[in-house]
Amino acid sequence: MSTATPLLPRVTCPQCWHKFQPEDVLWISEHQDLFNLDSRVPNAQLRFLPSRFSPNAEAIDPRGFPCHRLACPRCHLEVARPMMELQTFFLSIIGAPSSGKSYFLAAMSRQLRRMLPIKFATAFADADATFNMRLKQYEQSLFANPRPDQLQEMQELILKTQTTGDEYGYAAVNYGNQSVMYALPYLFTMRLQENHPNIERRGFGRTICLFDNAGESFLPGQEKASAPVTRHLAEASMLFFVFDPLQDSRFRRLDESLNEGVTDKSHLGSQEGVFEEAATRIRRFAGLATNQKYNRPVTVIVTKCDRWLHLVFDNPRDLSAYAHAAWTSPDGTSRPQLGMDTTLIDKVSQRIRKLLISTCTEIVSAAENFSKQVRYIPVSATGWSTHVDAATGRPMMRPGEVEPFWAEVPFLYAMANSSLGLIPKIRAGKLEL
């Protein structure tokens, strides 16, 4: 490895959670003769500990080919190179089946890629494109669709998250006769650019490791030694729970229009049941007592708010999660600086909580019985232009009309309230960097 970039003293594999020193990392061979020779990962290139390196500090595989990709010394699954250089921030996103989680993920990542460089002088990019291929396909379906002006059924634009299969974000690893299925994360880097107003922090960054499980992964009995696909919950610095209020008939009774385009999903089970199962696993993995509260933030992302937010605010489209405040740079120059308006977001959260208490009491109770820090943030992954097919009653949309509302806000709000110093916040009119 190149000595030009400092390496972390210890690295955490985002699949098996093994912690190792950088010098123990394996390299992934390139020569085709070494395909399907690895002892742990089937149908993959050989992993090896190198003894020879090129002048560019690339490992040389046993057939003399230079190599570029790295792997965990325990599970042999690939580890993105930025994880060797930047501390990793782990985020878990869970939700019941058909809650809109995949739509939310696509909208969030797209918004962060677009707006962070412009509004916060912060780059947000794939840590390794191979890890994010599914998510890029989601983004492509929504924001670069080849038929942007054609009405399309929403359930066909993005396929639901599956519970097995390499193409669905899972990988099998063989430990002798035992095969273990691991969940694969999405990986991003987030780094302050050279035009960032805080001169002293320029270049500072983190790897963002984001986990997304199918709702079925949280059914009782799904977590086992041969498929530890939700172990990331105990490692996460924050937890997002994607909640669809339109699945609850009590919520839909608030307005007759909320029944349009809604199909019966009672067979999917309760959404709070998914949250409670996740909470149970976190307690078990982290060793928390039954009466001990989770000390990390939980954000309940209340989806499809284009359908219902008018019940809470008169002009919901005008809500802005951002504000400006004066900031004095180290050179003494004063300038306006954009930040997350955490005061406003907290007020919005209180209003949404009040609405949920009156309709979907169980989800509020489940979240607040588990965590000390709960916020409720409205999100629409698609914006205000969804339609209902008169013949089928199913929701439809034109991809060219997609305008996400607050899709990036849960992540940015969480980052602003963290100790990382990547996103500034404005509280009571004062800027905090």
Defining traits:
22 strands; alpha+beta; globular; 23% helix; four-stranded antiparallel β-sheet; seven-stranded mixed β-sheet; 10 helices; Rossmann fold; 433 residues
Strand tally is 22
CATH topology-level fold name of the largest domain = Rossmann fold
Class of the largest domain, according to the CATH hierarchy?
A: Alpha Beta
Helix content: 10-25%
Distance between the termini: 34 Å
Domains, number: 2
What is the arithmetic mean of pLDDT?
90
How are the strands ordered across the major sheet?
8-12-13-7-14-15-18
CATH architecture of the largest domain: 3-Layer(aba) Sandwich
Q: If you compute it from the alpha carbons, what radius of gyration comes out, rounded to the nearest whole angstrom?
A: 23 Å
What is the percentage of strand-forming residues? 15-25%
Give me the number of helical elements: 10
Question: What is the global morphology?
Answer: globular
Low-confidence stretches: none
The CATH homologous superfamily name of the largest domain equals P-loop containing nucleotide triphosphate hydrolases
